[in-house]
Structures are given as structure tokens and as C-alpha cells.
């Protein structure tokens, strides 16, 4: 539950802007990947991650002969490749079929409170919260579940919230063939809550506004709707 509404003065993310003063701010909308990232298949990756994670557990002094711990390296490896980081692989990118806007709906469409789970790329601990997406049709519409799938695809990779916001916004523009897209993310960061400063109450908000959503009245309509119950 949000403790307070998302304000109009939320700082929009500019994908072209570089912020060299803060190394926690991404300078590219693309997830940093090596060119050979997919030379290995998933099973090879799982085998290697299992081996290395077993070594990490050994270094920590854990007894891997224990029934509860023995299968953990394999479980973690499969989880990384098949689940929580599956969005790194472009073959998992959702195919979004478009439909003609036969009903001539020309107002804002909003899907709010899309739950997402991601992982901070700095500490590999969870980021989780809500994504709110809106767009104006340029003649095509998309199935609502595909918006959720787009959010999940980009969430399932090591992330920073700024980059995630831009990636969802740009993908919505690409898929829907429209500039008129708004994205707001309201998230909890376990790297803040469970370590370091240990602040369990703070939330982070980011926004991506393009096309009509740069108009203050349109932006206000969007934010008012997502803040309503």
C-alpha cells in the first residue's frame, strides 16, 4: 500500500541524460550485456552457476552435506537462469499482437498497480513494487495482459529502477507505435531496507512521460487516477 500519493513533482527519467555524479544512476536504457552473453545455452549456464554458488557456500562455511543445503546451489542456479533473470534473454521477449482500435477509443488507457519483482544490480537483492502504465492509441490497441508481460520481462533481470522505467516506456512506444506513453514506478528496495542504512519505510518513485504525457493536464489526470483507490 502506498503511504502517500505519487506527486506531480516526481522526477521523470530522461534516457538521454547522463548523470556522472551518482554511480547508482544508469547512463543507458540498455541493460549492460556482453556480445557473447548467449553463446552458452541455459543448461550450461545452470551447471556453471551451480558450481560457483557451491563454492560461495563453501567459503561461507556452510555444510553442504546437510540435506537442507545440498540442493541449494542447483536451485539457485535454475532460479537465476529460468526465473528471476530470464528477462536477460531476448528469446523471452513477449510478442505483443496489436488490434485495430475499431471502437475509436481516443482517451487515455491506464493499467495501474502491476506488481513487479526485480533485483538490484548493485547487491542482487530484491526491488519490488507497482508499475502504472498509460497510453493513447495511435490506431492500435494491445491486450491488457501483454502490458503485464512487458513489465515482467524487463523486471526479470538485474536492474536499477531508472533503467527499468525507461525500458518499459520505450517498449510500450515501440510495440504500440505511439509516442503517447506514461510509466510510473513506485518501489521498495531491499538494498536500502535490509542492509546499509536499514530504512524499511522509504519508497522510490520514477516516471517516464512522452508525447501527450508531457502536457501537465494529461500528466495530472494520469497521476490522479493512479493515486485513487
From TrEMBL:
This protein's pathway: Cofactor biosynthesis; 7,8-dihydroneopterin triphosphate biosynthesis; 7,8-dihydroneopterin triphosphate from GTP: step 1/1
Record has Flavoprotein as a keyword: no
Organism superkingdom: Bacteria
GO biological process terms held by the UniProt record: one-carbon metabolic process; tetrahydrobiopterin biosynthetic process; tetrahydrofolate biosynthetic process
A Pfam family hit: GTP_cyclohydroI
Enzyme Commission number: 3.5.4.16
Keywords, alphabetical: GTP-binding, Hydrolase, Metal-binding, Nucleotide-binding, One-carbon metabolism, Zinc
Catalytic activity, reaction form: GTP + H2O = 7,8-dihydroneopterin 3'-triphosphate + formate + H(+)
Annotated Gene3D superfamilies: 1.10.286.10, 3.30.1130.10
An example molecular function term from Gene Ontology annotations: GTP cyclohydrolase I activity
GO cellular component terms, semicolon-separated: cytoplasm
Database matches in PROSITE patterns: GTP_CYCLOHYDROL_1_1, GTP_CYCLOHYDROL_1_2
Family: Belongs to the GTP cyclohydrolase I family.
Full protein name: GTP cyclohydrolase 1
